[in-house]
Amino acid sequence: MQIQFVNLQRQNKIYRKEIIKVISGVVKEAKFVMGPELTKFEKSFAKFCGKKYAVGMNSGTDALKIALLAYGVREGDEVITVANSYFSTAMVIAEIGAVPVLVDAYPDTLTIDVNAIERAITKKTKAIIPVHLYGQSADMDGILRLAKKHNIVVIEDACQAHGAMHKGRVVPIGETGAFSFYPGKNLGGFGDGGALVTDSKKIYETCLYLRNDGSLEKYFHNMIGIKSRLDTLQAAILQFKLRHLDEWNKRRRQVARMYDEKLKNINGIEFIDVGRDNYHVYHLYVIRCNKRDELQRYLKKSGIQTVIHYPLPIHLQKGFKKFGYKKGDFPVSEKASETVISLPMFPEIKDSEINYVCSVLDRFFRKSPK
Ligand SMILES: *Cc1c(COP(=O)(O)O)cnc(C)c1O
Questions:
Q1: Cross-strand bridge partners of residue 178
Q2: What's the predicted TM-score (pTM) here?
């Protein structure tokens, strides 16, 4: 049996007719940039997130960057985020000339450690970027309390967490969050895409300028912006897919429950905790074990594709050398990078495939326990 980590063809096959109709509509209309489908999708996506506004952008990375700019984060300001995330969460801070201040993660959920944030706050701290990692909310109660106390901006990296909830509230829990529509995300387009969602009218209006060369009226530019729009075609596809997102997230949760149930008695597997009151949407299903690399090779030989999220924490990336971090700075993130492995996870995975993955895992740990 061959099982891909994410199989996008399966979903495309199911919705082929509808999606082609959506694409034909946009082609016929030929308003490829800032067409009416973009505004439509922005309205729907804001509503889905329980927020007043959404602004479509080129990627999740740009949504984070533009959020920082919109809140006035500038050169020399410090922005706190977590070492255990995708590189661009921290890259955007450096990109705009601010100082990325990394902190470690909680050992149980692997999301950003609130006590570590508190210790990292200085007079220069302007913002915090918590990450809703793997599809579950970070510890937002603690983070928002800290932010309020110290008058710091919070921008939630929700790029893996479309529809995730904390205490029944959809993320972002605070004022503003960034999403990615990269093809493999819970809501993914046919290329790069992203969005910022916010409850602040001021941030919303600033972002409309920032993503469009600083302009809202053609050839009149009120500020130095960047060019980062969500294509009409992507917006139209995402608008169609958004209708299925809740159902897909439910299936992801069901797949996760099957994995939980079938793997719980295997000696050698350690699970990632799900925080209390969290509705996890399982962008990724991650387990931990000591013989991770050996396990990955074994699964591969059995036809099962897995991915490591992430093999090198941000503070040890070559691209972050100039910030002077070293091995040992963030032990939880470092340990995670050596032990985590993400199992196949997508809504269209079959029960028989999940069973197969679990039986191969069982066989591996029987042969080489611990
Ligand atoms: C995917 C992702 C991003 C970046 O999104 P892009 O659309 O690929 O730019 C940022 N942060 C996290 C946690 C992500 O998973």
A1: 157, 196
A2: 0.98
